[in-house]
From TrEMBL:
Belongs to the universal ribosomal protein uL29 family. This is Large ribosomal subunit protein uL29. It comes from Phocaeicola faecium. PROSITE patterns: RIBOSOMAL_L29. HAMAP family: Ribosomal_uL29 (MF_00374). The gene is rpmC.
Amino acid sequence: MKIAEIRELATNELAERVQTEIANYNQMVLNHAISPLENPMQIAKLRRTIARMKGELRRRELNK
């Protein structure tokens, strides 16, 4: 997800999306520990997306 797409989301929708992405990330890491993923770079990509979302939430919080 690109930063432009993240900025278009409403704050409450973004917060919910962060929670679901974190759950997906944890599940992906667990699955990778049991049997390796085809593309382990998906984990890093998802981690970066979560960081972008959290950064945008923090930016909005500070701008209030």
